[in-house]
Write a structure and sequence with these properties.
Blueprint: E1 16-17, H1 57-67, H2 75-102, H3 110-121, E2 123-124, H4 143-158
Parallel strand pairs: 1-2
GO molecular function: DNA binding; protein heterodimerization activity; TBP-class protein binding; translation initiation factor activity
Family: Belongs to the TAF12 family.
Organism: Anopheles aquasalis (Malaria mosquito)
Length: 159
Amino acid sequence: HNTGGDSMASPSSNSTTLGASNSSGITKGNSGSSAGGSSSAGGTSSASDGTTQLLTKPRLQELVREIDPTEQLDEEVEELLLQIADDFVENTVNAACLLAKHRKVPKVEVRDVQLHLERNWNMWIPGFGTDELRPYKRATVTEAHKQRLALIRKAIKKY
């Protein structure tokens, strides 16, 4: 039983900002294939069979060293993280393509990716998109939460 993975159960549980720079190494690759066209110069490209890996083991190890120089990942953990990164990028690109298709345009734009990341993962890319100020989204308070708060206040008044 893995208790550490519970935080990954809900994509909207963590608010994350995706950096505009390519510090993660995940954003590199053939971005032209997301719009439907695949470009291969020599005719032998692994992008056509879907095996192109966006995050490599050396880059993952480099990212881990940036966080903690003494940390070492198990082989299984590396494989899992690489698979999660690939799945995340693939799902994001597919969702962005669907949004572009819904808008009836042939190209995927930054706003398609932004909309998917904001709505599904509570992530945004600073420096891209509109210049409007982002309004603070206050979390909705459920009835159960209100009841718990009332119980806490009642208990505090007793003391």
